[in-house]
Every structure is written in structure tokens, then in C-alpha cells.
Amino acid sequence: MTNKFKSLCLLLILHVLAPAYAQDNAPEVTTAQGKLIGEYSSRNNRVSVYKGIPFAAPPVGQARWTAPQAAPGWTGERLATDFGPDCMQQPYPEGSFFYRPARVSSEDCLYLNVWTAADENANKPVMVWFHGGALTRGSGAIETYDGSELALKDVVLVTVNYRLGVFGYFAHPELIAESEHFSAGNYGILDQIQSLRWVQENIRAFGGDPANVTIFGESAGAWSVHFLTASPLANGLFHKAIAQSGARMDTRVALDQQTSAGASASSSGARLAELMGAADLPAMRAVPAKELLDAAAEHSFRSDGIVDGWVLPEQPYVQFSGGRQNSVPILVGFNAEEGTTLGAGSSLPGTPEAYEQQVNAIYGDLAEMVLEVYPSSDIRKSSLDSFRDSVFGWHMVTWANLTRHVQQPAYLYFFTHRPPGPMAQELGAYHASEIAYAFNTVHTLSNQPTAIDYRLGDVMSDYWVNFAHHGVPSAPGQPEWKPYSNAERNYLLFGAQISAEQNLLPDNWALFDRVMDRRR
Question: What is the pLDDT averaged over residues 451-471?
Fold first, then answer.
């Protein structure tokens, strides 16, 4: 036998044995469901990653538009090295700022992912992330949400998929009739609640403490955090909440009655079924998933966060004003230029006169106040700022303010740092730009990060992690972040430098208090 032949045989043997060797040396945990085989993070081999863990049974067939049921267990070992499918969605169009290559999507999508550097008995705080995407897109598998860096800061990190769009927020009279709670339409929220139940039952195996769970999310993920803080069904399943650029303090659609937000959710669902030619609920459940997704888009079906009397018992603003939300500390905030990537800077009025006419048409007798705060002397800035404050800022500040009714601290931030890139000046601190800093994953930014970016990511993630640990956001050697209150309107400014400030944009909130009160 020649040396060359011996070497070839050895290589073949190693190739055959490599998967078994890798699995033998892979991290593993035994949960209440069964044994999982994970992998080590490519970022740091101190971190174990478990992907694609089912937290609920597949919501398919007759289970479409039903509350999620616990996922069954398994015998033997389950390989947890690949993310599960995304929930059904249409990807952002090419050319969109938020476009990314599509992943496989499916109705069978209720999976979560865990990053941990802890052993089974470590009892570390748990952070559960709900992704954004307008409740119509997104996934827990996005690279920016890699939990390796947070896990190295002594938390167990979980990312979650939940039903989206027509699959997650569809109501119909027959769904109400078949529900023991006479409810329908909040299936995406119920998925999130089921994921938190899974955490309570299983997270100890990953070194997490089920008695110290922080939920957090951005944009629609922050809406989700807001809904979970409102839902009595989530009471006790989490202990702190972080919401980045998103809350729903405006009037929401109701299940079976018209509101200022529009027609009832059940009538909108019935109308979609009629347009699709579906005679009844069984016919709607029989529609192939892709066909249903496309039909919902064609007919502009849109629903989320339905006030149904069960999952969401009343309008959130009324509920939070009365102190009937879940009593937890919160950390909330928003970005300086939220609208630059959301279309708010396009199709601007061409002249100051046209801008003033537009403001008068929208705000009526409050237009004079609006023009004082958002003057026609700088149309682009005023348009972007008014969009930011009406869609994001007012909601976050109001949530911080109303948390006093449950005697819990609220921490407010304002993110002004401009990520690197040739359009940094134009885009500014755009919508979702803070996520990479909160996760300390600035290496995923589309342009080469600077030393300032890496430093800000390290510090900002410290504040987030220490809030999860102790309920007080802090970072070594950094400014003290004091709670927000009516008496002391404290906030933390995240820019190239971090500073403790007070009284963020008071005239803006006074104006939108009046605007929102009138809309209600």
C-alpha cells in the first residue's frame, strides 16, 4: 500500500467520522421536551447556540387561527444547529432600505433560538427578543440579533418567531363563535406568550433564571412588548421590559365594533373572506398558505393588536392611564431620525406655503401650534421631526410617564448616533439603527464600524444587560441613568458621547398630548 493511498484512506475515514466527532464535542442540554444538540458560536466558542427549538405545535390545518399549543417532546436527540423557517411573509422589495435575501418561510414556524455561556446551575438573567417588521415581516434568525455578545455579558438570550400578517392577526365572526373566550385575531401575541411559557418551563436547562426574564424588541417588536405589558395573560411571565421605537398608545382596532381606528377586526376579516370567495371559516382554513398571503396583500388586509377583551382587555392608553398594566420596570426610547428610512423624507411639500396648507389640512385649529413646533422654515426637518414624534416619540414618553401608576421605574433614552456610511448625514440615527448597538453586533453594520461604534455598542449593551440583571440600567464608568418622572424628566442621550439629560422636547409632547386626545 503506497503512502499516497494510505493518506487518501485516512482522509476518507476522517470525512466519514467528522460529523459524529463534531456532534460528540458539541454542547448539549436536556430540556423538559428532550435532549438538544447545539453548536458553539462562530463569534466565541464559550457561547453555546441552540437553534430551531419548537416552542409550540405547528399552527397548520385546523390549527390555523387557534391559540398555540405546547410543542410535543421527542425521544433521543434533536439536532439544534439550524434556524427554523421564518413565519409566512412577503419579503421587503429589492431596493428597500430594509431588504435582505429571503429565507424559507412556512406556517410551521413557531421556533426559538437560545444563546448561552452559562452552565445548567448558573441562574443567569434571561432576555427574550421579539423582532420588528410591522408584524408582517421579520425573523429571530437575523444576523444582527446574534446573542453571542450578550451571552458573554452573563445573560441567556432568546429570539422568537411568531405568526405574522393575516396568519397572526386575522379575526372573523366564526372564529369568535368557536372561541371559549369569544375572542379572535391576536394569534401573534398568543405565540409570544406561549414562548414565554416555554422559557418558564425550560430555560433552567440553559443556565437561565425563569424568575428574572426581560422582554425586549424594536419597532413592531416593541409594539409586541407593549401588548405583552398590557395583556393579563402574560402577567408573571416576565419581570422587566425594554421597548425600542414602538408602542401603541393610539386607539387600536376593536374586535367587534367600530372605533376611530377603523372598522371592527371581525368585519375586516369577513370582508377578506368574501373577496376571496370563501364561504365560511373551513374554506378559509383550506386556502394554501401562499395563496392566502398573496390575497391578503392584494386586498390590503392589515390588522394587529386587536382590543378583544381577552388578550387585550381594553384600549392600551386607557388601561395604562388606570394602572391596569402588568407591573414591571421599563426602559423605552426612540431615535432622532426615525423617518428617513420609512419614507417620511420623500414627497415633501415644495414651498413653505404648501407645507403650511398641508399642516392646516391635517391638524385643523391646532395647526398654529404645530407650526410653532415644526416651522415651515425647514420643511424637511419639520416633516421628519413631526413624523418621529407622532409615530414614535410621543408613545414612548407617554408610556414612561404612565408607568408611575404601577409604582415602577421607567427609563427613557434618545438615540442620536449616526452609523457609518456614505449616507450617514442624510439618514442620521435612522429607524432600527440602534439595534446593532444594543446587541453589541456593530460588526454587522453595512459599512465599516469605527472605534466609536464599537465603544458605543459595548457601553449600550452594558446598560441593557444590567437592566436585565438588576432592573437599573448602568455601565461601568458611564453616566448614571436616572428614572423618568413628571418632576424630573430624566433621559439618557446615546450619541458619539453618552450624557444624562433632562426635559427632552417638552413642547413636542405638550402638542401631541392635545392632538392624541382629540383623536381619541
Answer: 98
239 catalytically annotated:
no
Q: Which of 139, 219, 382, 386 is catalytic?
A: 219
Delimit the domains of the chain by residue range: 25-251+305-328, 336-520
Rounded to the nearest integer, the mean pLDDT of the chain is 94
Burial label, 258 (beta-carbon count in 10 A; 0-12, 13-18, 19+): exposed
| Per-residue model confidence as pLDDT tens digits over 360-412 | 999 999 999 999 999 999 999 999 999 999 999 999 999 999 999 999 999 99
The domain defined by 336-520 folds into: Rossmann fold (3.40.50)
Tell me the pTM. Answer: 0.94
- Catalytic residue (one of 431, 433, 434, 469): 431
Which CATH number, 3.40.30.10, 3.40.630.30, 3.40.50.1820, 3.40.930.10, labels domain 25-251+305-328?
A: 3.40.50.1820
For the question of residue 219 being annotated catalytic, the response is: yes
- Identify whether 488 is a catalytic site residue: no
Q: How far apart are CA 34 and CA 30, in angstroms?
A: 6
Task: Choose the catalytic residue: 174, 337, 338, 434.
Answer: 338
Burial class (CB in 10 A: 0-12, 13-18, 19+), 222: buried
